[in-house]
Amino acid sequence: MSIKNKRPNLHYQHAACTEIGPFLFEPMLKLMQENYTDVTKEQFLNDLEKKQYIGLLFDDNHILRGFTTYAINPNNSGGDDYAILFSGDTIISPDYWGTMELVRGWCLTVASIMKTHSAKNWYWFLLSKGHRTFMYLPLFFEAYYPSLEAEPSEQLAQFKLMEEMALQIYPNLYVKGTGILQFATEGGELKQELAQTTFERAGKKHIDWFVKKNPGFYQGDELICIAKIDPNNMKGFAKNFLVRNLKEDEKV
Questions:
Q1: What is the CA radius of gyration of the chain?
Q2: CATH number, domain containing residue 37
């Protein structure tokens, strides 16, 4: 029996941002505008200029269905013994929610980047505007912050590191002591129907935790998060993907 309405597979490609052509800007911007309010082309391109790498999700027909961007030590936010991998805009078409291809691709790109400075500890610094981004942390990391399970002392130590990064990268947007980035002007919020899906999942512990930490997410507030990128701190197939790619010689 045939299966109707089967969605095409997704395929991940990564590249330096300087290598992608302008022909990709329009479909990327379209994805952003379909999911977030009042995203202008100028804002989009200005943000893209601050990133070094990009991961692209294409379907079998080579239609762009999602992407994520990466920056290394933005605004000199790294240290002598550690480096920061910052995830910027990340979007997947709602028709493809639940796909694991982005996780596989993220591990490919991250392993390639980590091998350029293998002696340093690497931290993933990301902003969670919605619960789907936040859920990558409990699904694939043993320790991450902010975390429902972390001890208070451990939580405080990591909060200080996160806050230092936030103040370095977003000095005019980070509200000190809150763990939240707030934007002075409207625009860039999740569209109402997408934000509503978070409230519909009330009662799930990690989603409730996200809403507690970022109650203004539906207004565009972003929760700062951090996790050490290390196979010993990862779990599930994300750990297997990272280990496999760290052993390979491929580099971005």
A1: 18
A2: 3.40.630.30
What is the full DSSP assignment across 20-84?
Answer: S-GGGHHHHHHHHHHHBSS--HHHHHHHHTT-SEEEEEEETT--EEEEEEEEESGGG---SSEEE
**pTM for the whole thing?**
0.88
For the chain, the domain total comes to: 1
Residue 2 falls inside a structural domain? no
Query: Diameter of the chain by CA atoms?
Result: 59
Residue 33: CB atoms within 10 Å: 15
**What pLDDT was estimated at residue 5?**
53
Angle at 206 between CA 220 and CA 44, to 5 degrees: 25
What 3-state class would DSSP assign to 142? Answer: coil
> Does residue 78 lie within any of the structural domains?
yes
Question: What is the extent of the structural domain holding 99?
Answer: 10-246
The pLDDT, as a whole number, for residue 29 is: 92
Q: φ, ψ for residue 59 (rounded to 5)?
A: -90, -175
Residues β-bridged to residue 141: 234
